[in-house]
Amino acid sequence: MTSTSTTPANPATLFKSPVRAVWNVQGENVPTLWWPAKGQLTTKTAKGTEQPVHTVLFMIPGNPGLIDYYIPFLQTVHDKCDGKIDIFGASHLGHSAGDHVTDTSRMYTLEEQVESKIAILDRLREQYPAGTRFILAGHSMGSWLALRVLKARPNHGIERLFELFPTIHRIADTPNGRKLQNLFKPSVRSIVGGTVSTLRFIFSAPPILRSIVSLFTGQESDMAQVTSQQLLHSSVVKNCLFLAGQEMEAIKVMDKETIKQHADKFVFYYGKTDEWSPIENYYEMQKEFPQCKSMLCEQGMVHAFVLGHGEAMGLLVGQWIHDM
């Protein structure tokens, strides 16, 4: 009698698009995306030799915190790294609709978003071998969340933080913060949420709603799909506005101590015309932390780079990872 053994299939060879899953994190259901690694990148040892190393990129979205907006960006990063890194991304609590949502009336605080991201990193660290290097990529207010994760877990193997169009202080004093502050008031949140519900009722056919979103926002088909089918729900919009209001109140003073302690880990990337993180922030960072790597976009990318510049940003981030 002969026996045959089967080797478990590598998920990276089975899926060309990211693997979708809902993780239960501290009792809350969180939509996630995962790009499995196909092999490993190498890093130089102290002796100058090359050795393979597990590399995991954890993407923390801005607001709205729908990870699906980041698919073109993260797919490009994965491709640029020849598929040799694991990429994991998670939506914010309350920023998605679907069967995984058990309470549409729940409003999630900024601190709850922080704790959720810390818990996700803890789980990722448990699932990968010792010596795995972790990279946190934060966009907009996600950069502030990434900073909080590093502060809470400084010994978890976090080697880099890519802070993309970061809003890590004085959000309420930015041009957009001043213009949009009334939008985050409870009464206005309710009106906006009701308006979204009405739109979904009138334009119930998904293709029609997607077309309307594309027409009025200029978003390409895949991004208009995310907006129309995942963002435009009353509970999601209310959570986004509620979180934004909390950001205005909480994200005021830069955590200079944590940045100084880990200065060699940071890459800050600013836009020239960003009204959420003005160019003055770039100059301030250069002056305050010359030991950090601060960069100013020369490609004309906007704050919401995922809406049209995801691939371009992905090429940059992929190269940064190669250069580690």
TrEMBL record:
Q: Name one GO molecular function term.
A: lipase activity
An example Gene Ontology biological process: lipid storage
What highest taxon heads this organism's lineage?
Eukaryota
Q: Mostly located where?
A: other
One GO cellular component term noted in the UniProt record for this chain: lipid droplet
Alphabetically list the UniProt keywords.
Hydrolase, Lipid droplet
Kindly indicate whether the keyword ATP-binding belongs to this entry.
no
Name its cellular compartments. Answer: Lipid droplet
Q: Which family does it belong to?
A: Belongs to the AB hydrolase superfamily. LDAH family.
Q: What is the name attached to this protein's record? A: Alpha/beta-hydrolase
InterPro entries in UniProt: AB_hydrolase_fold, LDAH
